[in-house]
Amino acid sequence: MSDIAPANEAPANEAAPEPAGDSTPDSAPAAPPARPIRPTAAGVVEGTLNFITLAARTTALTVAAAHLKEGMSALQRHMEGNATKARTLSEMCDQAEVDPQYTAQILEVSQALQRVAAASGELADTADQMEANARGFNDAHESEYRGIYEVVQAGQVRQPKPGFNAVR
After folding, report:
1. Is 0.70 surpassed by the pTM of this model?
2. Exposure letters 24-58 (e unless 16+ CB within 10 A, then b)
3. Residue 78 belongs to what domain range?
């Protein structure tokens, strides 16, 4: 290690120079500004259950299901392509009279990739159904409770918290 300190740092045995400006010995340096909190799906799930948060939760579920469906569809296409390539490679190895053990292993990989493609297709279908169900629930919830929510918000009477009138 070199004994030469960089120009912007003070040597280890000397105190760092005070920055220019009016600072007192007992004042702490200013903290960097806090980063704004980014809303996440997890943040939407927690909190009070009311008309707005339930709508936000079902919207978050709808978006997550759509992303899952797209990802699984892409995975399915990718795995099907890889399975086709592996099957072609197996056929080429068979024509080239490669050891049957290796040809069989390549064909087995192709079949495994095809199973992954099928499973990801099933998951994509399930995610599509989940997205449709979430949209249906959101639409039904909106049509059922939007009017009530707006009347309550426009009124001057303070309403009880959710669950107050629940039958026990």
Report:
1. no
2. eeeeeeeeeeeeeeeeeeeeeeeeeeebeeebbbb
3. 49-153
